[in-house]
UniProtKB/TrEMBL annotation:
Residues 8-317 form the FAD/NAD(P)-binding domain. Its cofactor is FAD. Residues 342-446 form the Pyridine nucleotide-disulphide oxidoreductase dimerisation domain. Keywords: FAD, Flavoprotein. Transmembrane segments: none annotated. This is Dihydrolipoyl dehydrogenase. It comes from the Bacteria. Belongs to the class-I pyridine nucleotide-disulfide oxidoreductase family. InterPro entries: FAD/NAD-bd_sf, FAD/NAD-binding_dom, FAD/NAD-linked_Rdtase_dimer_sf, Pyr_nuc-diS_OxRdtase, Pyr_nucl-diS_OxRdtase_dimer.
């Protein structure tokens, strides 16, 4: 016989979104339950942001040896890499990160239920044989890597996703990466920099979620110097005796292992959304208000990757906070979301900030561009590659967006996000100090270039200084 327990709030999913919601709920009530299936510790810390960055840092450190001879540092060719040791360090630090996320769970053990939750009605949830009712429910069940069923049949550890990549004790010498979105680009470059022979395939023309062709092409050009990559090339897989055959329209290639990075799917299948009295689209998704996180017309809120929108840590955390706040409020409040910002941790780094080029009406903007191939500070560090493009609203001069594949993209994208959120014009940003020699001088070049295309007055102020046209000074 099943037990029925009543509470105020049920949170399904103990990832970043669920934990962010929990913090808000705990401020107001003790009458809550947190239900989680599978491992605790969050996707971010366990198999996502953190372990991927640990792999990238090790790979970049080893790759740096290619610059040594030019700096005058000798015997770089004698360096070697111990991949099992790289993976051991990764897991050691990863486990530390995971432990920090487990603290919030350990403090509320009596309110945590382990098991798969399914909605059985607008206010009821079933876990195993037990039924729980709540005034409000937050679904924060995250997402999982897409893995076509035919590929799932390929055994012997030949098919990897990021769910198991970081658990490997060693890696094989030839790896194909399928998918050139954020995960594909970050991992293909990292694996290649660890000395693995990487061949990467992407179905689309653009890389890393960029929408500006010129920026994507600049990234492609630099990555192609490190590993083989094919865009607009859909790949299929077939198991062979010793490995996996990657089949495209034009070629076949045998590799030892394949990392599949063809997207992530929200964990909503079997969730029972059809038990809510709301309409679902052809993908089974309800209408979720991004400013409230509420499924319109219900007592259910969805936060995090489960929304299938903006699968990025800071957005996921915001959605959790909004959901947590709203389930505890008398009135559901709509929150203004942050300026869009996404960063891919390749070298050169990529970022899309504000409105992506693809979403802008080209008639209403001007584009400023700066190449980093001859930027002074970048050159000093042997990091002189890539491009930044900034988009200004033609009539107001305000910065509306930027895309870049260039050194220090992760930092400059944050400066531009600040400028966009403050609705600054390029002129206003150019009136602020930029030190010398810094990589931001490249950003200044892009802003000056854009501004030149809209300024009509010739009166002088310091925001209008010209470039010296000399590498050492710009
Ligand atoms: C390799 C990789 C690298 C990434 N790098 C970055 C990065 O650098 N920067 C960035 O911003 N973002 C990055 N992300 C994205 C970021 O990690 C995710 O957006 C975020 O972790 C999602 O958090 P979440 O709370 O929505 O889901 P999760 O943390 O996955 O939590 C969902 C929880 O719900 C549980 N669950 C699922 N179904 C049920 C059910 N029916 N009942 C009960 N429990 C259930 C799951 O088991 C899980 O514990 C990366 C992701 C990956 C995979
Ligand atoms: N640095 C970061 O912020 C970061 C890092 C990793 C992941 N993430 C998050 O995780 C999400 C998922 O990342 P992702 O890279 O897996 O997904 P994605 O959807 O961004 O990219 C997957 C790519 O695979 C391609 N593809 C699909 N099938 C293919 C096939 N058969 N052959 C070749 N290409 C194929 C798709 O066209 C697509 O471009 C991202 O959108 C992002 O939100 C963020």
């Amino acid at each position: 016989m099943s037990n029925t327990t009543q509470t105020d709030v049920i949170i399904i999913g103990a990832g970043t979104a669920g934990l962010a919601a929990l913090k808000q709920v705990q401020k107001k009530t003790d009458a809550f339950l947190l239900i989680n299936e599978g491992e605790y510790g969050t996707t971010c810390a366990r198999v996502g942001c953190m372990p991927s960055k640990l792999l990238i840092e090790a790979a970049n450190a080893y790759h740096r040896r290619h610059t040594f001879a030019e700096f005058g540092i000798q015997n770089a060719e004698q360096l070697s890499i111990d991949i099992p040791a790289v993976l051991r360090r990764l897991r050691h630090i990863r486990d530390y990160f995971v432990s920090s996320t487990l603290k919030s769970i350990s403090q509320i053990e009596d309110k945590v239920i382990t098991g798969r939750a399914t909605l059985t009605g607008p206010n009821t949830v079933r876990v195993n044989d037990d039924v729980y009712t709540a005034k409000k429910i937050i679904i924060a069940t995250g997402s999982r890597p897409v893995l076509p069923p035919e590929w799932e049949q390929i055994g012997n550890n030949k098919i990897l996703t990021t769910n198991i990549l970081f658990e490997q004790t060693d890696l094989k010498p030839r790896i194909a990466v399928i998918g050139l979105g954020a995960i594909g680009i970050e991992m293909a470059q990292a694996l290649s920099r660890l000395g693995i022979e990487v061949t990467a395939f992407g179905a689309e023309s653009m890389l890393a979620g960029l929408t500006d062709k010129k920026v994507s092409e600049a990234l492609h050009e630099t990555l192609a110097k490190e590993f083989t990559l094919y865009t607009e090339t859909e790949a299929d897989l077939e198991e062979t005796e010793n490995g996996v055959k990657v089949i495209t329209q034009k070629s076949e290639l045998e590799v030892d292992q394949v990392l599949v990075a063809v997207g992530r799917r929200p964990n909503l299948d079997g969730m029972g959304l059809n038990k809510l009295d709301v309409s679902l689209d052809d993908k089974g998704m309800p209408d979720i208000n991004p400013n409230t996180t509420q499924i319109e017309g219900s007592a259910v809120f969805i936060a995090g990757d489960a929304t299938a929108d903006k699968m990025l840590l800071h957005e996921v955390a915001d959605e959790g906070r909004i959901a947590g706040h709203n389930v505890m409020s008398d009135h559901v409040e709509a929150y203004c979301r942050r300026i869009p910002l996404s960063i891919v941790f390749s070298e050169p780094g990529c970022a899309v900030v504000g409105t992506a080029l693809q979403q802008l009406d080209q008639q209403t903007i001007v584009i400023g561009e700066a190449s980093f191939t001859d930027q002074g500070r970048a050159r000093a560090a042997q990091r002189n590659q890539g491009v930044m493009r900034v988009y200004l609203d033609k009539s107001s001069g305000k910065i509306v967006g930027a895309e870049m594949a260039c050194p220090a993209a992760e930092h400059m994208a944050h400066s531009l996000a600040l400028a966009i959120s403050q609705e600054l014009t390029a002129t206003e940003v150019l009136s602020m100090p930029i030190y010398h020699p810094v990589l931001e001088e490249g950003m200044r070049t892009a802003l000056r270039d854009a501004n030149k295309k809209i300024q009509t007055s010739h009166s002088f102020d310091l925001s209008r200084c010209d470039a010296f046209q000399a590498e050492a000074l710009d």
